[in-house]
User: What shape does this take?
Amino acid sequence: MRTSLSILLSLCAFCLFAQAPASNIYVFDMNISRTTDYYSFTQPRLITGNNLAGYDNQPMFIDGSLYITSQRDEQQTDIYKFDLAEKKQTRITGTLESEYSPKKTFEEGVISVVRVSADSNQTQQLWKLPAEGGKAELVAEDVEGVGYYEWLNRKVVAMFIVGEPHTLILVNSTTGDTRKVRSNIGRCLQRTPSGSLAFVHKDDSEGWYIKVVNPGNFTIRPVVATLPDCEDFYWSEDNVLYMANKSKLYRFKLGMDDEWTEVADFSEYGLNNITRLAVSKKQVVLVNVSDEK
Assistant: This one.
């Protein structure tokens, strides 16, 4: 396995629940040779250079644009959209509440977010709103404590419910019916290309495993153990899983690999604490959390 990184990094390519740590988002063009298994990462960009001391996180590709959660001036968090080709950013929300976790729904031109109420209750619920911004609509009125989520189809949404322990439930957004799936889960939830749900199960005896639940019959199967103490992953459309550990990016090809394989080391760019990530066919987005307290 070989990797290639370009030499120069532009520090300002373009502007753009508790106290969040400082984090920044980097984008690299990614090319994969299907014949030689060669990964090349070029054209690195720091897209959050105007908010270096702030919180920028939860990247998600939606209809060709990159959506993120950003906290600026130590105020509430809002959702921003980046057109990477045009080097343009757009603020999507600007409410008194805080919004997190932008994701694509199965409705055209509609995204969803976790919104934290601005009152003393700080209620966390799932909302939908136009992808370009506008009036929001509550998804499941009776479900609170939503930390993270993932849409599995037009009606069913998986939710990470904050608690001791954290719990994974499936919610029918039309009927309001809920089904508990598993406790002791990680924050990353992702729909697989086949329509199942991938999540991290943190088990005291077997360790941390990426597992998949079938929303039709609720059967659960293990896929692969996570990297040490890592819970953020990305499941690509071609059934390749990606995880990061410190400065390194790894991949796991379903049906081919027996273990995680390193594909890049981003330490030369000062990325030593990579957490969340997003992958498209030609780009990888990495979140680097500041080591400073």
